[in-house]
Predict the structure.
Amino acid sequence: MHRSPWWFHRFETLVNHFIELVVPFFLLLGRRMSILHGLLQILFQVLLIISGNLSFLNWLTMVPSIACFDDASLQLLFGSRLRERVARMQLLGAEGDRLSLGSCVRRVLNISLGLLIAYLSVPVVLNLLSSRQVMNTSFNPLRIVNTYGAFGSITRERTEVILQGTSSLDPNDPTAVWEEFEFKCKPGDLRRRPCLISPYHYRLDWLMWFAAFQTYEQNEWIIHLAGKLLAQEEETLSLLATNPFAGRDPPRWIRGEHFKYKFSQPGGKHASDGKWWIRKRIGPYFPPVNLQGLRKFFEDRNWPYPVQD
């Protein structure tokens, strides 16, 4: 998908805007257009599932689209006995259908709720149209209507934090051998094929991706993680794909390195060498740390100090 021609990416963008901005109004245009809306939305989410790892978000987005299909459009999925039973129930319901007091109360409540939602949506819509739009924000104490967005903006480059450990006494020794901790899904090993995990969600991998957008001072938890890796805590190691120090003494030092990743070119030099990724070092993400040196850091934040097994 990434290496598709430029015109295909333009087409993708056009389809994306059409499905998200135009297709929702199909719900107001009758039964057939409502069914078409459901089909297009589900197909769109399936394409997103195939082309990226957005965990369970796309699967959840498909759920409301099921309401676009009435009994007639779904009857092929069920046996004849069940269809006949439902038809009899609908016939009995139609014969006894009259506007009861309960029905009137329900209509009044539905209209009242609709008016309430419309009133509470005014600041949300104004925010949507604003040039200084705020995301993931509530505009009332009950949080009935909110703004939501998985991403405020999309980066044009992918940067990654790579955690490395060494057994060397001196982390500044040029001959020190630094070995990488491999995560279960996020890019690391250049020769590992990109994973497909949806609808599962590796939360630590996800957080590592976001940490690469910022500094370690803004993501102190990554130093917490480094301390646990220095202590070789089993629970923490279970979140990783590989531990280069398994069966050996724990690392004396751990550091974070910042890299820029991009896909290798099919048929190119790196791809022919079995590499899915090409990376370029940006610089250090956080300096080498050892367990003893992190004691005060943990104590100041009331974090349990990692103890080596």
Notes: The first strand starts at residue 137 and ends at 138. The beta strands are 137-138, 146-147, 158-166, 179-180, 182-183, 240-242, 253-263, 277-289. DSSP finds twelve helices and eight strands in the chain.
